[in-house]
Structures are given as C-alpha cells and as structure tokens.
Amino acid sequence: xxxxxxxxxVIPVQEAAFVQPFRVRHLHRPGVTMPTHITLHxxxxxxxxxxxxxxxxxxxxxxxxxxxxxxxSSTDRFADKGILYLVPEPAEPFHVLSQSIQARFxxxxxxxxxxxxxxxxxxxxxGEVGSIEEEFHREYGSRLPIEATATEVSIFEKHSDIWVLxxxxxxxxPS
Length: 175
Fold this sequence. Notes:
Cyclic Phosphodiesterase, Chain: A
C-alpha cells in the first residue's frame, strides 16, 4: 500500500532545473512533481503531524547551518533499482543535515538512514540504466558541472500522486 500525506525534507537545487524535462521523460509521478532536489530525510512525518512545535524545531535546527556550495559534476547509478542520479560534491554537508534531523527527531527514522546523497534523474523500467545515462550525457553533459548553493531546506507533502510544497526554511549563520 502506497503511503499518502507523508512528508519529505529536501534541499531544492534550482540551478539544476534545466534537467527537469529529462526527469519528466524518465521518472513517473509523483517523482517529477517535486522540483530538482536532494533528499535529506524521507519519509518524515505525516502532514497533520507538522504542527507549530515541529516546524519551530526544524526552523531552529536549520538556522544553525550556513548556506553551502556544492557541484553536480558526475552521474552514478543504483543499478539494482535502475536509478540514474547526479552526485553532489561534497556530500558531507548533506549528510550532516540529514544526521541532525535524525538526531532531533529519533521517533521519525528515514527509510534509508545512511543513504547516498543524490539528485535523481531517471528510472529504467527494464533496470538497465546505461541507455538513459548515455541519453543524459548527450543532452546535458556539456552543461556539467552544475555549480549550486544550498540556501534553504523544504518540506514537501505527498497528496495522491503529487508532491506539494509545505514549508521552506532558510539556512543561515547562527547569530
């Protein structure tokens, strides 16, 4: 049974928005209804659990982390799942944020607590990712690396087969 009304915490990557047409061709709904992003924690809580206290704790947590630069310069695969993705470098700031969320909300563990940080590009229905990867490099390889800055963290809530933006928090230096 597919989960509904649950949330995911992600870092949007606006600088990679130009790959969205590729994602639309190679991902299914609801995946493509969320903008290009790197997931920090999924699933998080159900939408009705995102009360003022939870949102306050998240805002306070994220306000202690400064914005950071990263690049997306290469592709990789989860071959066993048929997934093609872009690799963020360095990955450490994403892991630090993910671990901080897990430490602050231990009652809400993610499905993959030690996951490889990535920006999903496509899913092969046959499990063979090679042709999708070749297509990506033909169309977008000349635009790599993608230089990006993480400035915010967003919560998206899943409704049926659509992800809807719930809340955005700024990353900012502690005052």
